[in-house]
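Hi, here's the filled form for the chain we discussed.

Project: internal
Contact: R.S.
Residues: 149
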Amino acid sequence: MREAAAFSKLVLCGLVCLPLPSFAQQKSGSDLIALEKKWTQAYKRHEIDILSSLLADDFIITVEDGSTYGKEGYITHTADSSVHVDVAEMSDLKVRMHGNTAVVTGAYHEKGKSKGKDYEYHDRLTDVWMNVGGKWQVIASHYSVPLNQ
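And the returned structure, exactly as it came back:
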C-alpha cells in the first residue's frame, strides 16, 4: 500500500512539474498575432510610420513572384498610390516561440487594384519576429502562392 501511495505521489509530482508554456510565452504569442494584424492594416492603409516601426532595419521580404525587398523597398512599394488594397486578411495564424525570436505562419488573402488592374492573392506566409530591448520587430517575411491555386 505504501508503495502505491509513494508511486501516486511520484506520478502527481511528475505531472505538476511538466514543462508548460509560460504565461509570458502565451502573452507574447497573442501580442505577435496583434502585431501581425496591425502590420496588415498599416499595409492596407499605406501607414508608413507604423510599418517603419514594425520592420527591423535589416528586414527582408520575399513576395509571391520571388522578388525580395529590404525595408526601404517594401515601404516604397506600400506607399505606391497606384495600389489600392480592398481586402487584406490573415487566418490560421500560429506562433512558435524560440527565446527572443518567434516564427509566425498562416494564410493571407489580398484583393485590390494595381495600376487599374484587379488582382487577388491567396498566400501562405512565414514571418520571423525578434524581440530586442522589449520591442518586437519583424526581421524576415516570406509569402508564397500554393501550387493548387
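Let me know if anything looks off before we file it.
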